[in-house]
Amino acid sequence: MVDTAAQIWRDYVTDAVPASGAKKPEKAKIREWGTFIEASLPIRPERYGAAADGTTDDKTAIEAAAAAAIASGGYLYFTPGKTYAFTTLSLPANLNIRSHGAILRDKGTNTGATVSVVFGDNTRADDVTITSPGTETNTDLFSFGDGFYANSF
User: Fold this and answer.
1) Between vectors from CA 41 to CA 4 and to CA 24, what angle results, nearest 5°?
2) What is the pLDDT of residue 27?
3) Phi, psi (deg, nearest 5) at residue 97
């Protein structure tokens, strides 16, 4: 069990100022607590460089955020009201996606057999909207892995 903030930052003359009292915080406990807090935060593509402006290709940031969500056991959260543009997107298996009003926008530049979005096996998506300008000429827009589940896709 991770210690609480009150346990880690205790016994200081001035709260949360380690040098102000006799008790020194344990760096390992601080790192453990910080890691616990970070793991409970939603993983947003913006943390990995997404512009979410509907124009900039956010592919690399989205895929990095998806990998981080898998590694942390968390979920990938797209910010409501934002538009994330991409050319192609490959999302890993066992990913949980939450959107609640964000838009994933295919830039419409794909041709031939290129698949615009690949969803890995056992992906769960809640309230995801994907749009395209209709200018792409690829044969498959989406590829859904086994066990794909969507609620309001």
Assistant:
1) 30
2) 80
3) -120, 135
